[in-house]
Amino acid sequence: MTREDMTETMAKVKIIGLGNPFMGDDAVGVLVARQLHAYASAGISILEGGLSGLSLLHDMEETDTLILIDAVHSHAKAGTIVRFTLPQDLEKIGKLAWGASTSSSHAFGLAEALTLAHTLEVLPAQVVLFGIELEHIQSGHVLSPEVSQAMNNLMKRIVVEELGLPHA
Amino acid sequence: MPGNQSNTRTIKIDMMARVEGEGALNVTVKDGQVQDVQLRIFEPPRFFEAFLQGRHVNEVPDIVARICGICPVAYQMSAVHALERIFGVEIPPAIRDLRRLLYCGEWIESHVLHIYMLQAPDFFGFASGLDMARAHPDLVKQGLRLKKAGNQLITLLGGRSVHPVSVKIGGFSQVPTKDQLLGLKDELLWARDAAVKTLHWVSGFAFEDPEQDYTFLALRDPAEYPMNTGSLITNKDHHLNVSEFEDHFHEEQVPYSTALHCTFQGKSYLTGPLARLALNHDQLSPFTKEIFTETGLSLPFKRASMGIVARSVEVLYALDEALCIIEEYEQPASPSVPVNIRAGTGVAATEAPRGVLYHRFHVNEDGTIQLAKIVPPTSQNQRRIEDDLRNMLPGLLHLSDEETASKCERHIRSYDPCISCATHFLKFTKEELPTSLNIEL
Prior knowledge:
heterodimer
């Protein structure tokens, strides 16, 4: 077994950032995950989940706590951060347009993938989903200022409140 | 007005459930005759063609991997092969095999998703894959474990499970050890057994759509079932080099869709699993041929609904091929060969899960992209889907509009077009009644 495999087996917390890094604010989930790489350890693994909803079902295996981050479009103020817990909030999650399920071509949106995981009883014990309200989904790398600020805030919040670590 | 009364019936499906991306279908029927069939597709490759301009060639594999969440490997493979042609790169056999193995992983993932979660529910009257999962959780779990076998190949070879990062011009940034590949063997053996069961299962479905006179297009390689190499052939005796693609296949803008329609010598054609299987079944592995013979079905398949069988055959083949590659693998001394970047033009076509994926790149002296052209399978099949519906609709018009729309949607879904949408939203207008009736579901 390689070192990477061992880390995978021991992981208790998995953080997955979703979205498309080439589509404006839809990148935010992936960018938060990239910033959190510094906190990866034997017990904490960080993944970039990209666009594919159903791949989440594979990625969420072998962890006790799953933290998901994605852009969300709900007509709230850009940069607004929302936190959901699963499976309690599944219905609310299903009513929102998630970045990873609207900005690209893929079959299974985030809400459907999570509902399927719940149906098949494969959700980890603790699942938290953070949404960041996006301003725009369009070409280019640049995050809107509100979303950029929210990205930094959310990163700190996850480190302190979810991981219980001191923020550097 | 008596004597001049026209009964116009418009069937619209604004967003089609369980189809990749976004799309819509408008059908107009006047005096009992089908007047117009318009399939509207909104596809991302057009945006990426512009986005690639000015980017360095080394960035291309990572950028094109974001075009599609389902088939990133296909975009990477067409891109690196087109660019390697410009730079005169010869890929050694071991790297070539690993790329094939990576492609096997993607075919497995993409096909299994469509078989279990998107198309099979239609044969049992389930509104969605979720509903089927509620009724048959063990069946769907089997599908997901099978899909995961493909995912594991992509994770090992691509560096992670989605949007592989290790593919580069000249090879890979890293390659697995023999032991790492052998570590997947047991699960792949389980998956191959599951693929046999899947093929038997879907072969017993009721395929009720009419037969079509398809022009099939696929790559053909004299030595193998096509993935990364080969020339273009059809079942109507055409043999073309990939470099001739744009001489014979023309993309045109249609006013109702953001996707370009691609035609072959002015007519529709079909690419994808049905075409690959029809034109390359002799290249399947002996084991796959043996299991296929047990189904009692004969080729070529002329019904779109039988795409689920073709995909199941290819899943079984991909697993058999993957096991074979793993068995024979010897880790290369270097994961890639040196690349001398230079100006030029290069084209390549590979077999994405949904069919022929063509790329053309023009590269500047400094290694930046001057122009990128991408022709995805879905834009090639779009005209063919419309032709199918034109043929089918006269036989459906006696049904209620809701049933007609539902059958059209199911037929379109059977093609696995990359025009998805997660929401089911069917909009329907019937103008022949004195007052218009609007139903939204």
